[in-house]
Amino acid sequence: MRKPLIAGNWKMHNNLAETIELLNGLKRELLDFDGVDILACPTYTVLSDAKDILLDSNIKLGAQDLYWEEKGAFTGEISAAMIKDVGCEFVIIGHSERRKYFQETNDSVNKKLNAALTQELTPIVCVGETLAEREEDKTTEVIKDQLAQGLKDVTAENILKLVIAYEPVWAIGTGKTATPQQAQQIHKFIRDWLKDTYDFDTAEQVRILYGGSVKPSNIKDLMKEPDVDGGLVGGASLEVVSFSEIVKGSI
Ligand code: 13P
User: Fold this and answer.
1) What is the third-level CATH fold of 5-249?
2) pLDDT tens for residues 46-61?
3) Domain segments of the chain: what residues?
4) Which atom of ligand 1 is least distant from the CA of 172?
5) pTM
6) Residue from 101, 232, 243, 245 to probe ligand 1 pocket by mutation (most atoms less than 8 Å from CB)
7) Any residues with CB less than 8 A from the CB of 22 and at least 6 apart, and which?
8) Which residues' Cβ are closer than 6 Å to ligand 1?
9) Whole-number average pLDDT of the chain
10) Alpha helix segments (H runs only) across the chain
11) What is the pLDDT of residues 154-187, one digit of tens each?
C-alpha cells in the first residue's frame, strides 16, 4: 500500500515572514492529520527557520534542487549534505523549470539524485513532456528517455527510496490540468517501465505524484486513479486553505 504524498513546491515565492505565516497556518489546519505524507519545499534561504517551525509537526521539509558535488569551488551552489544538515528529508530533482531555464539535463538529474541518495535524502524526480512533444505524439518516448537516462544505474534498492513526479509541462501554472485519465495513462506507463526495468513488487511500491495545476477541485478525481499516489503542487500550495484542502482531499 502506497501512502499518499502531497508536496508543495513553493518555487521562488515567499520571504521569511510569509513562509513562517504559511507554515504556522498549515500546522494549525493539518494538526494530527495522518494517512498522508505532507511536504513543504520552500526556497533555500528559509529552510533553517522552516525546520524549527516544523519540528513538532507532521509536515516534512524538502529543498527544490541541489548540486551533485560534495563541496568545493562552486559559487552559488548547495550540496546534498548542506540540505540534509539544515533538516530536509526530501529534495526535488529535475523540475521542468530547471530543465527549461537552467539547462538541466537527464544526465545532471542522474548525478543529482545519486548525490541526494548518498545523503539519505528522498529525491522527487520530475519528468514530463512539453505541449509540442505531446502534440507530436512523443509523450511516452520523452518520458521513457527521462526515466532511462535520469534513473540510469539506480539499483532496485535505491529506486524504492525515491519518488517520481509526472508533471506535464503544458499543465504547470497554466490552470490546465491533465484529466485524471491522461494522468493515469502516463503514471501507468511509468509504473510499467519500472516493472520492466526492476520487477513487479518493486514497481508497486514506488510513489508516482502528479503535478500541474493541482487544485482542491481536482485532487479527489486525480487520486481515484490507481497509479496516482499524490500531488506535487505549485500555485495552490501557497495558500493555507487551498493547500490544506488538497491534503485533506487526497484520501
Ligand atoms: P502549478 O501547481 O502551479 O501548476 O505548478 C506545478 C509544479 O510545477 C509543481 O512542481
Assistant:
1) TIM Barrel (3.20.20)
2) 999 999 999 989 999 9
3) 5-249
4) 4
5) 0.98
6) 232
7) 14, 238, 239, 240
8) 9, 95, 167, 172-173, 211-214, 232-236
9) 97
10) 16-30, 47-54, 80-85, 96-101, 106-118, 131-135, 139-150, 156-159, 180-197, 200-205, 216-223, 240-249
11) 999 999 999 999 999 999 998 888 999 999 999 9
